[in-house]
């Protein structure tokens, strides 16, 4: 949570966690293009700083995930070859566990 610029694998996993928890991204300027882009890192840091974060994952109602959330996860993250626990583990052991949770 204290990383200003996390490894891409950590960022990818936290984006998926934010989507499943209904947390909206911030709109920031892309340094490369100057255009607005969605950035989940600041909301992710707030989420990771929440003392009840782990409990909220345990209590997550996986049987009632909104269809829009599932569609985005299935279309964007599941097919992504970088979104594999083995690859994520190279960046962070904690993020590997979150990847498995997703």
Detailed description of the structure:
The protein is mainly alpha-helical and 102 residues long. It is 54% helix and 8% strand. A two-stranded antiparallel ribbon has the order 1-2. The longest helix has 13 residues, at 8-20. The protein is globular and about 40 Å long. The model has no long low-confidence stretch (mean pLDDT 92).
Structural class of the secondary structure composition?
Answer: mainly alpha
Largest sheet: 2 strands, antiparallel
Determine the mean pLDDT.
92
Strand arrangement across the biggest beta sheet: 1-2
Tell me the series of helices and strands, N- to C-terminal.
HEEHHHHH
Distance between the termini: 18 Å
As a percent range, the share of strand residues is 5-15%
Shape: globular
Range of helix content: 40-55%
Total count of helical runs of at least 4 residues: 6
Number of strands: 2
Low-confidence stretches: none
Rounded to an integer, what's the Rg over CA atoms? Answer: 13 Å
Provide a brief overview of the structure.
The chain has 102 residues and is mainly α. It has helices spanning 8-20, 41-49, 53-58, 67-77, 85-91, 93-101, and strands spanning 26-29, 36-39.
Which short descriptors sum up this protein?
6 helices, single chain, mainly alpha, two-stranded antiparallel ribbon, 102 residues, 8% strand
């Amino acid at each position: 949570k204290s990383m200003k610029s996390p490894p891409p694998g950590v960022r990818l996993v936290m984006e998926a966690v934010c989507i499943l928890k209904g947390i909206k991204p911030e709109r920031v300027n892309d340094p490369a293009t100057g255009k607005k882009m969605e950035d989940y890192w600041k909301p992710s840091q707030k989420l990771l700083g929440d003392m009840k974060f782990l409990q909220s994952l345990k209590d997550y109602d996986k049987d009632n995930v909104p269809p829009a959330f599932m569609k985005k996860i299935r279309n964007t993250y599941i097919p992504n070859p970088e979104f594999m626990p083995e690859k994520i583990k190279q960046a962070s052991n904690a993020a590997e566990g979150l990847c498995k949770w997703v």
